[in-house]
Amino acid sequence: MNRMVPAHTTLLPDKWGYDCVTEFCRIWGPEDAPVSRVFLYMFIVMISPECAPVAKVGGLGDVVQGLSRELAIRGHAVEIILPKYDCMRYDRISGLTKCHSDLWVSYYNHWVHCDVYFGVVDGLNCFFIDSHSPPNFFNRGVFYGHPDDRERFAFFCRAALEFMLKANKHPDIIHCHDWQTALIPVLLYEMYQHLGMTHPRVCYTLHNVGHQGIYGEQILRQVGLNPGHLMTHDRLLDDHHKAANLMKGGIVYSNFVTTVSPRYAHEIRHTPLGMGLQRILSVHHQKVGGVLNGIDYNVWNPAVDCHIAKRFSIETVQDKYVNKEALRERLWLRKEFKPLVAFVGRLDHQKGVELIFRAIPHCLSHGCQFVLLGSSPHGNVNDAFWRLKRHFNDHPDCHLEIGYDEELSHLIYAGADMLLVPSEYEPCGLTQLIGLKYGTIPIVRNTGGLADTVVDADYAPKPYHERNGYGFNDYNWAGLESALRRAIGLWYSHPQYFRELMVNGMRYDYSWNHPGQHYLNIYNNIKAP
Ligand code: ADP
Description:
- The protein has 19 helices and 17 strands.
- Helix 15 links the parallel strand 15 (about 420) and strand 16.
- The relative contact order is 0.12.
- The strands form three sheets. A nine-stranded mixed β-sheet has the order 3-4-5-2-1-6-7-10-11, sandwiched between helices.
- Helix 4 (about 150-165) packs across helix 5.
- It is an alpha/beta fold and about 525 residues long.
- Adenosine-5'-diphosphate binds near residues 58, 374 and 405.
- Adenosine-5'-diphosphate binds near residues 59, 373, 374 and 431.
């Protein structure tokens, strides 16, 4: 009956053992994958707080959509379980219908009634959990940002498992994401396997360890777990606070832990970027690895993109400039012989907001135009950017769009010449991958996935044809300023080299093809016999 692996052991036989990321990539590369494993079809359930395009705040939504599609294209049965938020893009769900109306989920000492809806998102089968909880967990007008977020998502974890149990779903793999779904493996191992869910194994992906879900132990009682048993340093007790750390629990209890780039996997284990999780990641190093995210080339591809003014590819790269003109027209920027620098993303401290703030006037005074699309959950950051926006209101070379606009983001990637990603830390980063595909030169800080994907035009120890952008090492203005100077200088002085750099970037394959295979190798090795 008890076929779940003990949380502290690894399922992997010694010959598959590894403790460093390079080894991970070498052993688990598609070429080395045992052929018989590759062709076993699996039933995979993604449990996630986000999935693009219906519920997307950032890269997590893109990853769940892109990876799921890749797995489905390869013939695997994939289902996604999400909360039924009131603020979802309902126009992107087809055939939404109630499929379960009698789901009762334990919440402290009583039961909460839930309905489950089924709908298809971009060809993917999705289940949406609608809770009729008194605090109205998923009808808040926003995805995150409430003081009870941890209770909301702890409830979601219990509800997702309860739904799977009642619907008799026994997937080979449950793949869960970030702190919001970290309680899934804990609940599965401590509770649901004893109720009959002995088959599924859990792959848990850390998209950002900057948010771990640290909360008082009552969060465990809320979902029916016994804190006395779990609040120890080798399980959920946080190493620095007297509180439950949900992400730590996810790491301890899942069968395999991935993070979203090899560099970030190294950083969170060996540097302060682990934000307190270094020790537990070291204890479990044999089941931890970094798999670089991909992007979905059906969505992010200038050759097929329906949101841009003119489609283009490497062969027709000059058509990119039709998009530059369209972007200028849409945002009331003047048509001048100038490079256009852009930023798209959450205006979070992690993203280097101070540097972005400084880069805008700098670019304007150094012969560039600047476009920003972003918003922040932090009032003071939003206010600062609103002030800057008012300051540059009538500037013919600057447009700051404070908000979230999926369609506009496509036109910005297509129309800009350079894309700024000066993050303080960056687990993977998708914007630079999108920029590369659209021939938009990324200017990035060398950290996490940015360092894994952007190859500096001047200093990289790689051949010229592999260079694709600009990087700087230290998180400070001098670093960014020098990278900007080199990029702007090349645009003005050596347009031919600039164009070569664009094409080099467009040639890279950052689709889900390789990461999809890596994940399948992982699933194959952890799934129950
Ligand atoms: P993170 O997940 O940390 O937010 P990523 O670079 O991994 O950052 O992914 C960001 C994704 O969210 C990209 O697809 C980007 O285009 C999108 N995005 C971020 N902010 C906005 C916005 N304000 N409007 C439209 N898309 C956005």
